[in-house]
Amino acid sequence: MERLDLDLSRPPPLPGTVEECHRVIEALWRALGEFQQIQARVEELEEQLALGSDNSSQPPSQDSPKKRAERKGKRPTGRKKGAQVGHPRHERALVPAEAVDEVRHYFPHGRCECGGSVAVRGFRPHQVFDLPEIRYRVVEHRVYEGRCGCCGQKHQGRLPDEVPRGQMGPGLVAWIGLMTGRYHLSLREVEALLEEQWGLRFSLGAISQSQIPLQAWLGPVYNQIGEAVRKALIAHADETRPYRGRSIYWLWALTTDQMAYFLTHYSRGKGAAGELLGDFQGILVTDRHGAYNDHPQDSHQYCWAHLIRNLERIAGRKGQAGEDGERLLRAARLTVHCGKLWQQSHYPSDRYRRRLERLKALFRRELEQAAQRHGDNKTGRSCRKLLDDFPRFWTFLDHPGVPMTNNTAERALRPYVIWRKTSFFSQSHRGDCFRPMILSLVETCKRLKIGVYQTLRTICAQGMAEGEVTFRLPLPEPQPLPVASP
């Protein structure tokens, strides 16, 4: 670009010829074009700096200090911390007398200060809970051998089928699986806890090797969960990125309110989504990730929380784009509020439905106007993409009972994310395959309110004794969706 050397302290000289005028005008146009490019780049960088968990898919842990301060900024209530005056009292219920391990009696003095005798009329129970001293239990199995006195042939005893062939019993293998899969401890922490709490010393390799048979024993229950969740009428799907280490697998989740099924896959594309969904024919609730778009449009619900975050990003832009984003954001929030009221009324009221239909028409009209107004720039492209996805946001109107958000799947993935952040996580292919199995069992047991440790112990005991696990979880049958009144 040709530079114009102008002295701003005095008016610039007028060009003398027509050619000079054209040269100056062309230079000004080029400068204006470069200025517009620089301005667009500055706005793009400012938008990236403003990204956070409220307007993008970025997790809250990666928010800037400014964003965290804004998120934590709450109006003070003026009340002190802790329990408030007049709150309902909560006390631990007493254990029944037949469940008490030891009873100690404390009687008053038999003689009063006045000289009279004291008659005992009752007592006040005071129960103290404590943990027993822990010690591991060792059973030595002695296998004898002998020799025939006539021919000299050797004869040897044989261990029963129910005796483990390794040094770890079903309770220990189940406990290791519980510590890793439920409480997200690393193998080194499990090694340290075994020695500190139980006085047991097992090498890191032995603890890791204990997951090999457990992975095989979890297979039938894992398949049961996968088959059951694919028969559900409503399911939520989501995925999360792999650990930034040796693992290259993405973790996928297909969940309901009673079940959670996890799958690891090297891809984040449609092939992995198809493997996760299998023959699922119900209503699918997801974010706007395109890998799920092979699912039929009339039974696919997009998450409104993700939509609001996308609109927050548009509303943060300057000029007309920000104004259009604000209008779309208000319409989206009003839709979510009205949808919650409709769901809380159990769908008998037609008033909320009519209001949602009006909001649907308003939201579409605003999107069309914004797409036409902004043309082919970033905001216009975003609005046209929302128009393409528009039917997938309103499936809940045609199928009452379908949630408007994908919180069920995101909550299911949360323990995995915590596990990934607080330990070395998986360092091998075997570990990548073990994680979805143990997570599926743990999360499903939590939803069914079943003890995870007892379930693991039953599975390990069957696997060691019989070689085949026949245990199955009491998974519920699919329930019909509520129907809106005509």
From TrEMBL:
<feature type="domain" description="Transposase IS66 central">
    <location>
        <begin position="165"/>
        <end position="431"/>
    </location>
</feature>
<dbReference type="InterPro" id="IPR045618">
    <property type="entry name" value="DUF6444"/>
</dbReference>
<dbReference type="Pfam" id="PF03050">
    <property type="entry name" value="DDE_Tnp_IS66"/>
</dbReference>
<dbReference type="InterPro" id="IPR004291">
    <property type="entry name" value="Transposase_IS66_central"/>
</dbReference>
<feature type="domain" description="DUF6444">
    <location>
        <begin position="12"/>
        <end position="92"/>
    </location>
</feature>
<protein>
    <submittedName>
        <fullName>Transposase, IS66 family</fullName>
    </submittedName>
</protein>
<dbReference type="Pfam" id="PF20042">
    <property type="entry name" value="DUF6444"/>
</dbReference>
<feature type="compositionally biased region" description="Low complexity">
    <location>
        <begin position="53"/>
        <end position="63"/>
    </location>
</feature>
<dbReference type="InterPro" id="IPR052344">
    <property type="entry name" value="Transposase-related"/>
</dbReference>
<feature type="region of interest" description="Disordered">
    <location>
        <begin position="49"/>
        <end position="90"/>
    </location>
</feature>
<feature type="compositionally biased region" description="Basic residues">
    <location>
        <begin position="68"/>
        <end position="90"/>
    </location>
</feature>
